[in-house]
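Narrative summary of target 7.
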Amino acid sequence: MERKILSIQWSQDEACFALGTEAGFSIWNSDPVQEVGRREIGGIQIVSMLHRCSLLALTGGGREPFEAPNKVVFWDDVEGERAGHIEFRQPVRAICRRQNLLIVATVTKVFTYFFPVSGGKAGTPFVLEQVDTSENPNGLLALHLNTSTLRAKVAFPAHTMGAVCIATVDVSHARVTSALPSKSSLPQTTIQAHKGTLTGLALSPSGRLLATASESGTLIRVFEVATCNRLHTLRQGYSSSTIRALSFSKTESRICAIVDTTLFVFNLGDVTGQHVKTENKSEADGGLLRNFAERYLVEESSVFYTAKSRLPGDAVAAFGADTSTLLVVCTNGSVLRLRLHDTELQATEFHKLMRNEDDEFLRLLESS
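Modeled conformation, tokenized:
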């Protein structure tokens, strides 16, 4: 059966990654890059891991799907069998997991579940909350859990275009209930990040920072979650592109993004947010000066990328432990490890996860 890659997902600490394919799924170590498991059970769109736990959350996809796209199936990979499922009214677009917390995003809703897992075995999940969102076909969803307080932050598109909603879930006070809440009671904060539709969002490892991108495709903005203040404005260029797959380094001093078919790396350590203040000239000039300043002067305070590297197509990327290395996994089955030297990204490793006649990534390496 054809093994076309449908999706790539990292584990919570990015120590391993999973591929959803037309044939099933496979799990890989990040360092060294090595396959640790594979199942051919039918097309898989989403493979959600909980670190290295053998209990996976799967959704079907491709031409011959493992299951309907509106079902999350819990798969016990030790036993090689299903361990339960949750069915939704809409197709599932994203799944996030942290300890006993399971978050599922459909096209217009986010569901939070308490999902006990012990010894790799699944307990019975029960719903905590459901939250309405704007149309979210790309499954934009981010999750951070404070393991000390058991309070989680969940980020997803708000109803207002370009805004991000950050909901707080208190797992320590989870109550078993069979009824689905009709209206969310979660504490929520909204950040108006952009004017256009969101195309990317990510929470930093500590949950302190939120990174966002929109369909305008020129800027990435970084906010402090606690205050909603914009701290950094990062620019990949002036032409419109598709910015996605945002990821912070472990120290939160850098961020990377996939922009169309190029990997960009930005430094955050020496960047401070700038705010342009202008006098209100609405009576004298109809607000033209103020509008000009808001549109151009604020954007001029943005910081350009530190380094970039061209890729053969769709990909995801994550920083290594030292923040100077990155691992890039592409949907054509190529894996590249890069090291940042000043403003240059240099390839140090190349792997091919599956055979392809058109090995564009290898051609790029040979020509560089």
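Residues 226 and 286 are 35 Å apart (CA to CA).
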